[in-house]
Amino acid sequence: MPGRARLFDLFQQRPAIFSEKPRRAITAALWPVILDDRRSREGRTQIAAGRLRPSYNSQVPEISTIKKALPGAGRLTNALLVAAKGFVISLARIAYALWLEVTGLIFGVFTVWGASTLVKQYRADHFADRGRMLWTVAITLALAWFTVLSFVRARKTRR
Question: Where are the domains of the chain?
Fold first, then answer.
């Protein structure tokens, strides 16, 4: 934004701006910055609407950074880039689904371990230690929830 540099310069000259009539001085000093900002916003909206074509030196950002990096790229290069992007996204999605399934399996193992601990506590003393039983139940239920949630997310990711 071109106005930011000028605005920074204005704050460097603070005593000159805040003189007898600070409101007028600030308005007069900032008016070119405000106009530049309005013009650039109006230009961007008109370009987006298709009314104006951006000039070569325009401040409108490039649509594709890949095309900017490869100025002589032809149709084949662009097609290969699109194919590679699709392959990488597909591979990442599969890897993420696998990660979710593995973590779900680990949570499932811990859930079975918690359930077996509950069975052992029941057989040993019929849950005489209530605090330990409640903690074991709470942790086992949380791990069971994480197991189910992980497999549900993996299934949604594969779709």
Answer: 2-61, 69-158
How far is it, in rounded angstroms, from Cα 159 to Cα 28?
59
CB of 33 closer than 8 Å to CB of 11: no
Structure confidence by residue, pLDDT tens digits, 125-155: 998 999 999 999 999 999 999 999 999 999 9
**pTM for this one?**
0.52
Q: What are 68-78's pLDDT values in tens digits?
A: 555 566 888 88
In the structure encoding, which two tokens stand for residue 108, read together?
């499932």
Measure the CA–CA gap between 93 and 158, rounded to whole angstroms.
7
**How remote is the C-alpha of 100 from its chain's centroid?**
20
Distance CA 63, CA 70 (A): 13
Distance (Å, rounded) from C-alpha 140 to C-alpha 14? 64
Contact 156, 97 (CB under 8 A): no
SS3 89: helix
Confidence of residue 33 (pLDDT cuts 50, 70, 90): low
Query: Is there a contact between 96 and 157 (Cβ–Cβ < 8 Å)?
Result: yes
The full length of the chain comes to 159
